From TrEMBL:
Source lineage: Eukaryota, Metazoa, Chordata, Tunicata, Ascidiacea
UniProtKB keywords: TPR repeat
A Pfam family recorded for this sequence: TPR_1
SUPFAM superfamilies, per the entry: TPR-like
SMART domains membership: TPR
TPR repeats (start-end): 59-92
Protein name (Swiss-Prot/TrEMBL): Uncharacterized protein
């Protein structure tokens, strides 16, 4: 049951009235926690500060004090408290990431150089952590790293987390952004045909990425590449659409399934309208 601000104030006032004044700083952390919960951050910080002056090696107290300062907009003071907490208790993954985030985010404490220092610490402490990699990419983008460096970082991470669908989606999106549609198409084919684990191929976002890449590539090669190449791409797209529609239905995304069914219908109709369909003739006759 949560307390109101007035209830917290009464508890603190009553405790003060029956306590030895010399012992009150010892209750500072308890008071601070109560005040923090009711968003009285100034008062909470004052009490926690009294506590830390006596118990300077209390890591949770320094962390909570930092959280008070952060909510009050004093990010520099928050960072100082967070660092002190980590100095006392080094294994605090979330706090380590929070420091990196504060140095990365736009604002008075944004400092790419310091962010890099703390990011290196986070990388060593949390190998393979998805948040660390996300921050690493953000930092490299802020430093205007070249596409080659960005790609190298993604590939290295893929070697560590090959079963992470989001990472494969990120790599395909990167190649498409760099106007490397053919590479993105080939990469999707590679994952679809050689990936032993189903964790990627059965992922909704990955399947959506594959369909989008195949469709864009097919539109691009129409009228440029030989008909058999276009038809081969159509077949690959239809197969991807079939699986994606199934995933949509499993995930109760009926509207999305209908949209993809329409794309499948258009793709099949384009085959039937093609008088030089060659190997597709048997399929077309069966459909009719």
């Amino acid at each position: 049951m949560s307390l109101s601000t007035s209830e917290v104030s009464k508890i603190i006032e009553k405790t003060i009235s029956i306590s030895n004044p010399r012992e009150l700083p010892l209750k500072g952390l308890h008071f601070g926690k109560l005040l923090f919960k009711v968003e009285e951050y100034n008062s909470a910080a004052e009490w926690i500060l009294k506590f830390t002056r006596i118990y300077d090696r209390d890591a949770p107290a320094h962390k909570l004090l930092g959280e008070c300062y952060e909510r009050l907009g004093n990010v520099e003071a928050a960072l100082s408290c967070f660092k002190r907490s980590l100095q006392i208790k080094p294994i605090q993954s979330e706090l380590l990431l929070r420091i990196v985030e504060l140095y990365l985010n736009p604002g008075p404490t944004q400092n790419p150089n310091k962010a890099q220092i703390w990011l290196d610490k986070a990388t060593a402490a949390l190998p393979g952590n998805t948040t660390v990699f996300k921050m690493k990419m953000e930092l490299m983008l802020a430093q205007q790293a070249s596409p080659d460096i960005l790609e190298k970082a993604i590939v290295q991470e893929l070697n560590r987390r090959s079963n992470d669908p989001a990472l494969h989606v990120q790599y395909v999106s990167f190649m498409r952004t760099e106007d490397r549609l053919k590479d993105a198409y080939d990469y999707c084919n590679k994952v679809e045909n050689t990936m032993e684990s189903t964790s990627v191929r059965s992922d909704y976002k990955w399947s959506s990425c594959v369909v989008g890449t195949y469709k864009e590539y097919m539109e691009k090669i129409k009228g440029i590449q030989p008909l058999h190449s276009v038809n081969e791409t159509r077949l690959i797209l239809l197969e991807a659409l079939s699986r994606f529609i199934w995933l949509c239905l499993l995930d109760n995304k009926q509207q999305k399934a209908l949209e993809k069914l329409q794309i499948m219908d258009e793709c099949l109709w384009s085959v039937l309208s093609d008088h030089t369909m060659g190997d597709w003739k048997t399929l077309a006759i069966e459909m009719e």
